[in-house]
Amino acid sequence: MQTWLESIQRLFSVSYFLEALPKLASTIGLTLELSLISALFALVLGVATAIIRYYRVPVLRQITSVYLSIFRSTPLMPQLFLFYFGLATVSTFIRDMDALTAACIIMSLHQGSYMAENIRGALMSVDEGQKEAASSLGFSSLQTMFHVILPQAARVAIPPLFNDFVSILKMSSVVFVVGVTDLMGKAKILAGNSGRNFEVYVGVMLLYWIIVNLMNIVQRWLEKRCAQAY
Fold first, then answer.
1. Residue 136 is part of which domain span?
2. % pLDDT > 90, the chain
3. What is the average per-residue pLDDT within 55-72?
4. How confident is the model at residue 179, as a pLDDT?
């Protein structure tokens, strides 16, 4: 019995796990900050791109098509490496940029390309009669978009947009490769210093699990509020 317990202790040290967990949790603020800033810029970019594609704006529509094709067809990490290490060889501005800013830019561009299609789908779901009614009241296209279409599309877009935010939170785990000491970056440091990989990464998984499930609770609350409003 004692030998069995010793084997378990060698595999997983509860004392080190409890020691490492607060250190990992101390980086949650940075991880959430990175995710929230990226999500906000991605949302702005997604809305702008969706409106351009919804109205089929000449020239801009072609530009957004190229943007969507590039960022939806390539993984995040090569995009991050190309921007932060590749373009830095030809741009002093990027060379002098801190890693956190670079990560926010690429994460925003990457997830914004997915948000754009989700938002465009929500815009398309608004009944044509609503648009015709707005037009008959003398609303311009811009007024119709912001006063009629977007408010109704927001209710449809909330679930996929929350999924996008969860995706941003998860993808933030790769930014340690450019030197950002977020939750995953801290885990790499702790695991490297202690050699206790199992305990450290169990802690990482636990913290991500808690954060995502809390976000799911907020999502369900928002969906219920929107359903009551309509």
1. 12-229
2. 53
3. 94
4. 86
Please, which residues have CB within 8 angstroms of residue 133's CB and are 6 or more apart in sequence?
A: 148
DSSP per-residue codes, 48-69: HHHHHHHTT-TTHHHHHHHHHH
| Angle (nearest 5°) at CA 146 between 142 and 149 | 100
Q: Into how many domains does the chain fold?
A: 1
**How many CA atoms within 13 Å lie on the side-chain side of 11?**
6
d(CA 30, CA 35): 8
Tokens of 22: 């607060």
**Helix (H, G, I), strand (E, B), or coil: what is residue 74?**
coil
| Residue 70 belongs to some domain of the structure | yes
Q: Is residue 95 part of a domain?
A: yes
Instruction: Give the rounded percent of residues in the chain with a pLDDT score beyond 70.
Output: 93
Q: Which helix (H) or strand (E) holds 187?
A: helix 183-194
Instruction: Indicate whether 109 belongs to any domain.
Output: yes
pTM of the model: 0.85
Domain at 155, CATH number: 1.10.3720.10
4, part of any domain: no
CA gap 100, 175 in Å, rounded:
8
